[in-house]
Amino acid sequence: VTLAFIAVYSAIIYWNYGLPQNTELLREDFMQRMLSDLGGKFGFSIFSLILCSIGIAFTWHRKKQLAPIYIGAALLFFLAMFYSLAIVYLNFIVSIFAGISIHHLLKRTWMLYLIKELTILAIFCGLLFSATSYINRLAITNPSTEVVESLVWLNGNSRRNEVVLSHYTKGYWIEYLAERKVVLDSNIGYIPDAPERLAASSSIFMSRSLRDVKKQLGQYNVTYIWIDDRMVNGQVWSRQNEGLLYLLNNNQTFRNIYYEQGISIWKYLGES
After folding, report:
1. With b meaning 16 or more CB within 10 Å and e meaning fewer, what string describes 32-43?
2. What b-and-e string marks burial along 239-257, b requiring 16 or more CB atoms within 10 Å of the CB?
3. Which residues fall within 8 angstroms of residue 69, CB to CB, at 6 or more apart?
4. How far apart are CA 174 and CA 88, in angstroms?
5. Inter-CA distances, 85 with 1, 5, 42, 76, Å
6. Strands (E), the chain
7. Contacts 24+ apart (CB under 8 A), 123-128
8. Taking the model in full, what pTM does it have?
9. pLDDT tens-digit readout, 142-169
10. How far apart are CA 10 and CA 114, in angstroms?
């Protein structure tokens, strides 16, 4: 049922938007995608995968009856390499086999009861720590209240046809909350000239040539530049007055129209 759902969902997406292009531009690290402990948004905990493997070993003697489940899990794992959505469904299967593993560990005969208690305690703590770490990371993830407020402000203080430049990971926030167009968002696979836009964005961010920056901003009709703390502290720039940060001091070309909680919005005044 899960595979059928994903197939229908994907078919609808491809029918309406076509096949993705240039997906290798922003390919995620495989281990990070698959493991929530390494920062994956939909990944598995390491303890869950270990328990799942033990659960499969415990049920292997019934491999003929469980063959459809094994095959389905293998297909979902393959899809998860390319589509994060598949990880959500694969988690159901991982959880079931992890549960089987815990059940067998509880029911089996142990020579030393203390070893059994310590083993179960270690498993419980491992699962608990992974879940707690993920929940904490989810709680502090963006968009924060400050991000939302800045984009709502931009929505109310700009025109609908104006374009915003920011790091591509902020694109969806700007498009949804500010309801403004962006130079580039994370949906790289469906942007035909994504490589050019990605290169242009990087060039604008790192250039100290006002003439070149003006030319590229004009090419994409950029009116606003949205910058947050993360961009300034390593995501784009690593030093003060690096690249575009230096050029923003030119009051004849850029004007700071918003600054709150480390988030700034600059208006490009055009040719002067």
Report:
1. ebbbbbeebebb
2. eeeebbbebbeeeebbeee
3. 93
4. 26
5. 15, 11, 8, 10
6. 163-165, 181-182, 222-227, 254-260, 263-268
7. 123/47, 123/51, 126/45, 126/46, 126/47, 127/45, 127/47, 127/48
8. 0.67
9. 788 899 999 999 999 999 999 999 999 8
10. 50
Q: How far is CA 212 from CA 227, 232, 243, in A?
A: 20, 21, 12
Sequence letter at residue 209: S
Sign of CA dihedral 96, 102, 103, 109: positive
| Total Cβ atoms within 10 A of residue 176 | 12
**What are 222-254's pLDDT values in tens digits?**
999 999 999 999 899 998 889 999 999 998 999
Which of the 8 DSSP states describes residue 82?
A: T
| Burial of 178 (C-beta count, 10 Å sphere; 0-12/13-18/19+) | buried
Measured distance CA(65)–CA(59) in Å, rounded: 10
Place of tokens 């994903």: 6
